[in-house]
Every structure is written in structure tokens, then in C-alpha cells.
Amino acid sequence: MAVEIKMPQLSDTMFSGKILVWKKNEGDAIKRGDILAEVETDKANLEIESFNDGQLIKIMVPAQSTAAVGDVIAVIGQPGEVAAVSTSAAAAKSASSAAPPAAKPSPVGAPSSAKILAHPAASSSERIKASPLARKVAAQRNIDISALHGTGPNGRITRKDVEQVSGTSAPSLSAASAPRSASQRPAAAPSAEPGAGTLRPLSKMRDTIARRMQQSVTEAPHFYSTISIRMDQALALREVLKARDEYKGLSVNHFIIKAAAYALSHEPRVNCAMRDGQLFEPASINIGIITAIEDGLLIPVIRETDRLALKDLVFEARAAVERARAGRPSSADLMGGTFSISNMGMFEVENFTAIINPGQGAVLAVSAVQQLPVVEQGQITIGKIMKATLSVDHRIIDGLMAATWLKHFKEALELPALMTV
Questions:
Q1: Residue 391, H or E segment
Q2: Which residues of the chain are in CATH 3.30.559.10 domains?
Q3: Which one of 178, 231, 336, 337 has the minimum C-beta count within 10 Å?
Q4: Which ranges in the chain are annotated with CATH 4.10.320.10?
């Protein structure tokens, strides 16, 4: 029996997705686990996996087209089977296959959606690896992105790669390889007048971040609490453990994540959130690690963090962050977070506050570890101090809850043996 493949929700904030490329063609044999297509979401480019065996009978939404979550995008069945697609799927196919209206001429320099991901020389298996922003900038500047060399992870072309060749010998999509005559060369740009500048549309990811942060500060009354933590014992334990193979890559951030899970297990009300005017109490502790990527942020989620041994947490967190930074997170990485951590300690930031991720009730902002004078038993000594600021949604989390959570967080880091039991 034919099975309709629908556009899945690949992240908590996804409402629609753009199919960048189909990895399979109509008539191809499909096995469970095969990658069917690559989809651009509001957060990243993600892959759609098949959960069925059979044959790809019909592609309902072609590449470069957008479909809402839940829309039928393809049909898988048995060879020779006639696809019994739903009325909505047939309508979607009809709409997507209709001939588009004649394109109007675009002004010079205006982005052309037909060029953003156009790679005539590349097959679906040889698709150019480039970030969505790099493609957009290349289209705006009329640069053939397939001729560029990427400096990002796995040769991925970044915005910086496009901007570095902009105006140089990079091949143009519209211009033939013939050189311009002197009369055809653009005149030197006049000096910029006061207030002059360039308006550029936000990338899809940056636009999503802007909307969600505005939503958060508008809907959730933020309340902030800061605490100072002695990190001497945690840092000493890290030096001992990181030499062992099972703790390879152990960082201060892993201790912070584990301590946050410890605190959430002791003060679970900070793990809650407001949803549809009611208190939502998650069934598990799933901590998101706010990770900076090109022109945006991703928050890979470590599920049931409180149940993971420290060595397992190190493995899971490193793998999830590496996938995010490479632009290849899984859909599971981006869903189900109940609490988030933003760590700017590696940039020597002394103190900051973070905005709550919509759908959650709190976020932790972690600053750098500093050597500072502290008083112990009436004597001044030098301690390794880290400041952490908890932002909470004051509709559901009050000051006592925040203070209790910070007390347990501090306790776990100052007595790290508590996190190993």
C-alpha cells in the first residue's frame, strides 16, 4: 500500500521547509533509513529520512519549492503500484507543477530566487556545499557559487568566502567569460555621503532569531539572579579526568551542563515553562547548549541530561555541538529542550544576561573563570571565580525558586563529587 511522506517538523520552531534537493528520483528503490531529501528550515539544512521500504512513486513537491509541515511531499509504494494520494497531495502537486508566471525584470543587484541555489553543472549527489547566507549573498552579487572554494567545515562555502571574491575574478552567473571593455567597466564609486549604507535582508535563521527573541522579551517578564562560584575543585578534577580516554575532550562547559542538570533535579520548577496560559511540566530534563554558528545560533539538545554519567555527557555534548557547527544537526538535536545554557567564558566575558528561549522557562548565562581575591576564614586568598546569571520567566518562577536552583548549581560545581554519584 502506498505511503504518503509528509513534511516533518524538524525543529521546535519549524512551520514550513524548502526542499533544496531530492536525493532520490522517481522510480528509485527505497530502503528504510535512506535519505530522501535535504530541507532548508528556519534553523539549518536538515535531511529527511525514509521509514519505509519500497519505491519512490511520486515526488509531489519539487526541489526549490516550499511545503508546510504536514504537507505530502512524496509517495512511497511497491513497484508498479498506483499511488492513491490524498486530495490535498494532488492539489499540492498540481500547484507545484503549474507553469510559473513570466518573471519580471529584476533591478540590478536584486536577489534572484532562481539563482540562489542554482548549480546547473552539479548533480544531486554533487550538490555544492554552501550556507544559505552564502547562497543569498552570491545571488545578490551575481557570483557563480559553484566556482568558489569553501573554507568552512568539510569544504562548505561561507558568506566570508563569497565576500572575499566579490568584485574580483569570481565568475558571474549572468556575465559570460568575455572580458569587459573599458567603456563597459563601472565607474569608480563616489565617496559615501553621511548616513549612507546598504540595506540587506536578514538570513532566514537570523530573521527567526530576531522574531523569537522579540517574542520572548515581549511575552515573558524576565527576572535575573547572579551568583559567584569557586571553580578550584572542578578545574582540578578536570585536569585529572581529561587525561583518561573516556573523558577525552572534557571541558568546563561539560561540568556546567552536568551541574545544571543536578540543580534542575533538585529544583524541577525551573525546568517548567508557560504554554497556552498553563504551567507545562516536562517529563524529562533536556538541556540545550546555545552554539554560535555562521550568522546565527543553534541549540543542540542533550536529552535526559540528569541521567547521563559525566563521561557519557561529554560524548553526547561534543557530538551534538560538532554536528551543529558543521551545519549538519539531526532533527532530534533541535527538539525537546527544556532549559538552555549560554557560555561566553571562552571570550573572557565577565558577566552577562541571556534571553529565554521561547517554550522554556529559564536560561543560564555563564561567564569566564577569573582569578580574584576572596576571603576565607578572615584571610585574603586568590580563588578561581565564575559568575553565572539565571534568567527566569517570572510568570511561573519566582525569586525563591531561582535562588534555590542557583544554590544547588553552585553546590555541584564547588563539590564536583556530587555530580558523579
A1: strand 379-393
A2: 220-420
A3: 178
A4: 113-172
In terms of CATH architecture, what is 3-96? Beta Barrel (2.40)
- Tell me how far CA of residue 78 lies from CA of 29, 57, 72, 93, 142, in angstroms: 9, 8, 18, 20, 44
Closest CA to 165 of 187, 148, 190: 148
Helix ranges (DSSP H) in 220-251 = 232-241
Question: From residue 316, how far is each of 207, 255, 360, 416 by CA, in Å?
Answer: 29, 13, 21, 20
Query: Tell me, which fold does domain 113-172 have in CATH?
Result: Dihydrolipoamide Transferase (4.10.320)
Q: Where in the chain is the domain with CATH 2.40.50.100?
A: 3-96
β-sheet bridge partners, residue 16:
68
Q: Give, for 264, the enclosing helix (H) or strand (E).
A: helix 252-266
With contact defined as beta carbons under 8 Å apart, do 222 and 394 qualify?
yes
For residue 177, the tally of other CB atoms under 10 A from its CB is 6
Residue in 222, 254, 394, 408 annotated catalytic = 394
Residue 399 has a pLDDT of 97
Given CATH 3.30.559.10, say whether it is the number of domain 220-420: yes
For the stretch 46-105, pLDDT in tens is: 889 899 899 999 999 999 999 999 999 999 998 777 544 444 444 444 444 443 444 333
Is 394 among the catalytic positions? yes
Residue 158 per-residue DSSP state: -
Tell me the per-residue pLDDT of 73-82, one tens digit each, with 9 for 90 and over. 999 998 777 5
Summarised one tens digit per residue, pLDDT across range 137-189 is: 777 677 777 777 777 766 778 877 777 765 444 444 444 344 444 445 555 55
* Model pLDDT, residue 339: 98
> Residue 59 in contact with residue 73, Cβ under 8 Å?
yes
What is the spatial distance between Cα 67 and Cα 72, in angstroms, rounded to a whole number? 8
Q: Which of 102, 117, 94 is nearest to 19 (CA)?
A: 117
DSSP label of 72 = E
